[in-house]
Design a protein that fits this description.
Blueprint lengths: L4 H12 L3 E5 L2 E4 L3 E5 L2 E4 H17 L7 H24 L6 H14 L4 H10 L4 H21 L8 H12 L7 E10 L6 H19 L4 H8 L10 E6 L5 H7 L11 E3 L2 E11 L6 E12 L7 H16 L4 H8 L10 E5 L6 H8 L10 E3 L2 E14 L1 H32 L2 E3 L6
Antiparallel strand pairs: 1-2, 3-4, 3-13, 5-6, 5-8, 7-8, 9-10, 9-12, 11-12
Helix pairs in contact: 2-3, 3-6, 7-14, 8-9
Length: 435
Amino acid sequence: MKFFPLRISLFLLMLGFGAAVHAEEGEITKIDRIVAVVDQVVITENELIDRIQTVRSQLEKQGATVPPRDVLQKQILERLINDRLLLQYAAQTGLRVDDTQLDKTIERIAEQNKLGVPEFRAALEQEGISYRKFREDIRNEIVIARLREREVENRINVTEAEIDNYLTTQSSRSDIQDEFEISHILIRTPEDGSPEELQELRAKAEQALKQLQDGTDFSQVSASMSDAPNALEGGKLGWKTSTQIPDLFNEALKPLQPGQLTPILRSPNGFHILKMTDRRGGSSPLVVEQTKLRHILVKLSEVVSENDAQQRMTMIKERLDNGADFAELARQYSEDASAASGGDLGWVNPGDTVPQFEQAMNLLAPGEFSEPVRTPFGWHLIQVVERRKQDMTQEAARFKARQDIRTRKAEEAYQDWVRELRDRAYVELHLEDKY
């Protein structure tokens, strides 16, 4: 639902027209004001200032050149507007992240930093970061990630014909193993832009390229001028194989040496400038050790407690030790789809199973049974039947091709979807160049 523009203007007059109010006679107190209206919500000046300070601090810690305040302000306001649109859409369509899910995510973040949650919270506060605000920022990031997955990524389909064509194209290219570490600047152009608009945006791209050629840091030019989502992160795309990037980019990068820039590249999305930071190439056949195995699984439930499940597995293990047939016990006791085939899981590759399961499996010789093993799925007994070395080069190539195609299609579809969401939204700016 959009506000009628007149209602918005009156709303702004009531909430943000004056820069100050009289708290007491003779005393002036500055109040917050609105810098943008995005459909049904507002972005305030204090919120924008807080985000600018956070980004500035992050850039300084990374040793990156901080763009001028007005440039940084514009980039961050655009990001806040897009975030507001996405979060509003998520709320309107019932997508939410509850406190339990949020707590688990923060626990994982703390673990990655080798801290417990209390210590992690203390570390944040020592850095001047509000824990409450950190929680909400993480909640919003999860919501946006799930929104992208639901609205875009789950709808991406990669056909076998696309994979075949992709691999055929690969096999005909001598540079197929090349990998580029690249950074990217995008000057976005509207689909129905006039010749005058396109000429103006081309001039902006030329100005960006001139600054880079004159020695201005790429991160600074990206933060100042790029319209790419990662502009404030220096436009870094990381390592990409020659098949993960558009042919337009690949052809321009092939003749470059590390540190060099492409000329301005034109695509339907806009004007692009790439910098190659580094390049590498070469590969070898992928040979992995596969394990053929079977298992018995007892799941936990409201009826089956942890202790009950463990006792049941101990009883099954005793029967195995006394010569019972594994397949018959699996058919009788196992609680997953493999029970009908005697617990047979077939051949598995490294990484196919959860870590607890794989660790126990790797300790077994062919024919051996494991002790009861606890995983997130319940309690298992595992038997390794056989092991073999298998050349997975072709299978890995098809898997990688599918992932590369999906990634490229998903990114293009997501950017188009966000742009359509923005085009349908009512956005009213009330931002001066200085405060």
